[in-house]
Structures are given as C-alpha cells and as structure tokens.
Design goal:
By secondary structure, the protein is an all-alpha fold. 80% of the residues lie in helices and 0% in strands. It contains ten helices and no strands.
Length: 261
C-alpha cells in the first residue's frame, strides 16, 4: 500500500469496530484529561497562553506526562483494533484474535514510560514512537509475549529504512494538526457557551476540547498501527501469500498469523 492507502485502510478498520473503539477512546481520553487537568492549572497554560517563566517547569511536566498518556492510550486501543484485523482481512466468519490484556498492559506501560523519558530530550523524543508502535499488534496478532513483542516491533519497523516508523510518525503529525485545529476551534466554541471568567473554567474548557478530539484521534492512530503491522508483514514476510494459500487449504488463520520462527 501507499501511504495514503494505509491511512484509508486505518479509517476502514476503525469503522469495523467504531462503537467499541470510540467508546474506549472516550474513556481513556477522559481519564487522561483528569490526570492532566491539575497539571494544566499548575502550568497556567491554555491553547494560546504561554506560561510565565516561573511556571515553565510545570509546563515541561505537563508535556512529559501528556506524551506518556498518549502512548499508553494508543497502545491499549491498538489491542482492540488488532483483535479485529483478521476479520477485516478474511471476512466476518473469521474469529477475533484474543486481546491478551496482561501482555498488552505490560507493553503499554513500558511504551508510556519510554515515551515519557524520551520526551525529556529533544534528540530522542520521537524514537519510542518510531520504533515501538507495532509492539501491541505483535502481542495480539503474532501471539508474542511483552519482551518479544517489543523486539519484534523494532525489527519490523527497522525494515525498508524505517518505512513503518516514518509513516506512523507522519500519521501522528497529521492528526496533531487536525487536533490542534479542531481543538482550538472547539475551545473558542465552548468558551462562547461556558463562562470562562476564571482560570479553572478556562482549563476546563481546554480539557473538554482535547477530550472531544482525542476520542477520535487515539482510535484512528491505533488502527494505523495495526494496518502498518499487517502491511509490513505482507511486504517483508509474504503474509498475504500465506493467508491466500491457507484459505484455499482450509488452514486456520491462527496458525498463519503466528509469527514466523
């Protein structure tokens, strides 16, 4: 697939489980805003207001925690989108893959911690996002444990000149533009409906705007991770050929999707 086709495929995958993905996305985005709200108040920053110099430390902490919660939320939602991938590929008769919540939780926490650590630097900030996006699909689709899934993600992403990683980063930046544009517009719209004469209400309006945008953005990015994982396996391991042969021979999808040893 081309980059545009991959983004379209991610949207199509989102549609197959939209109620579940958007519902869980809303819950995760709500929990995220509950964590970030007090930090936003301490940093005293709303979209267009830069904090005073004595609050830059709180702003830095807000950004670091925000990167961590983003990475965690996308990873958790990636488990749900990955579970639906075989059915989206092979038809409604194909069973959903098991989510394996324990392994997914470990991977999500590791990815979140690494994202937070990387966010403290400029040079290494994008590295976890580039290399670890396929870890949760490796748990659900490939049936690997947390450690093996993280290594598998780095191997798959590293193929073809980090192709999957660059596309993942492009998808994130594309959604970042959408989120800022929609979030800023939402902030102004909500400020017309809610009296923002206090800092707390200002920050509440900002949280509501981010909540609305992230409810859609996080599931969309999770679906992109799943599509990238499957497409990279097709491109570099011939997964599409193996699945086609297996369908003709009556071999189960679980056997075919198991990671090559």
């Amino acid at each position: 697939m081309t980059t545009g086709e991959l983004l379209d495929a991610a949207t199509s995958l989102l549609r197959t489980r939209a109620p579940l993905l958007l519902g869980v996305g809303l819950l995760l985005a709500l929990l995220e805003q509950a964590v970030l709200f007090p930090l936003r108040q301490l940093a005293d920053v709303v979209y267009v207001i830069f904090p005073d110099t004595d609050r830059l430390g709180w702003l830095f902490l807000l950004l670091v925690v925000g990167f961590a919660t983003e990475a965690f939320n996308i990873a958790v939602l990636g488990a749900l989108s990955s579970a639906a991938a075989p059915r989206a590929l092979l038809g409604a008769a194909t069973p959903l893959r098991p989510v394996r919540p324990g392994s997914v939780a470990v991977v999500a926490v590791v990815v979140a911690v690494l994202a937070a650590l990387a966010a403290t630097t400029v040079v290494f900030g994008p590295v976890p996002y580039l290399l670890l996006g396929l870890a949760v699909p490796a748990v659900v689709i490939d049936g690997l444990g947390p450690g093996a899934a993280l290594l598998r993600s780095m191997r798959l992403t590293g193929r073809r000149g980090l192709r999957a990683g660059w596309i993942r980063l492009l998808g994130y930046l594309s959604w970042l533009v959408i989120r800022f544009a929609t979030g800023l517009g939402g902030w102004f719209a909500l400020s017309l409906l809610i009296d923002t004469d206090t800092a707390a209400r200002d920050h509440l309006v900002a949280s509501l705007a981010w909540l609305a945008v992230n409810t859609v953005a996080y599931p969309a990015l999770a679906c992109l991770d799943t599509v990238l994982h499957v497409e990279t396996r097709m491109r570099t391991e011939g997964l599409d050929i193996t699945l086609s042969r297996a369908t003709r021979r009556g071999v189960s999808a679980d056997t075919v999707l198991a990671v090559p040893r």
